[in-house]
TrEMBL record:
Residues 8-59 form the DNA-binding phage zinc finger domain. Residues 1-11 have a biased composition (Basic and acidic residues). It comes from Streptomyces vulcanius. Residues 1-20 are annotated as: Disordered. This is DNA-binding phage zinc finger domain-containing protein.
C-alpha cells in the first residue's frame, strides 16, 4: 500500500442535484452525459459547496468570509479583523503571508490561506 495523501478535492462533498450538478455522493466522481460518463473534473456547484464547507470548518476564515466589508477588503485588514476578534495566532500568520506576498493579498486569498494552513498545508 502506498501512502495516499488526504483527499483535498470537491470529491469529499456531495455534488448538488441537477441542473447545477449530477447529485454524486461524497467519494464518487462527477458524471456527465446522463450519468454514463465519468467527468475528469467536478461540477462548479460541487466545487463551490466544497469551498463553503472548508471555510465553515475554519473559524478564522469564516470570520473574514462573513465580514460585511469583505468586498474590497485587503489581506492586511483581514489580519486586523482577526486580531480584534481574538485570533491573534492566525492574524500573525496572515500578516507574515501578506508581507511575503509584498502586500498583494485580497481577503479572498486570505481566506484560502487560512483554510490551507488549518489543513496542515505548510506552503511557502
Ligand atoms: Zn457533479
Amino acid at each position: 500500500m502506498t501512502k495516499q495523501p488526504p483527499d483535498r478535492s470537491p470529491r469529499t462533498v456531495d455534488c448538488p442535484p441537477p441542473p447545477d450538478g449530477c447529485a454524486a455522493t461524497a467519494g464518487e466522481p462527477c458524471l456527465s452525459h446522463g450519468g454514463t460518463r465519468v467527468r475528469h473534473s467536478f461540477h462548479q456547484a460541487r466545487t463551490a459547496a466544497w469551498e463553503a464547507a472548508r471555510i465553515a470548518a475554519v473559524p478564522a476564515a469564516n470570520l473574514i468570509f462573513d465580514a460585511k466589508a469583505r468586498r474590497g477588503m485587503h489581506g492586511k485588514d483581514a489580519a486586523e479583523l482577526l486580531d480584534k476578534n481574538g485570533y491573534s495566532v492566525e492574524a500573525e500568520q496572515l500578516r507574515r503571508a501578506v508581507s511575503e506576498a509584498h502586500g498583494h493579498m485580497s481577503a479572498r486569498q486570505a481566506i484560502a490561506f487560512l483554510v490551507d494552513h488549518a489543513e496542515g498545508g505548510e506552503g511557502q
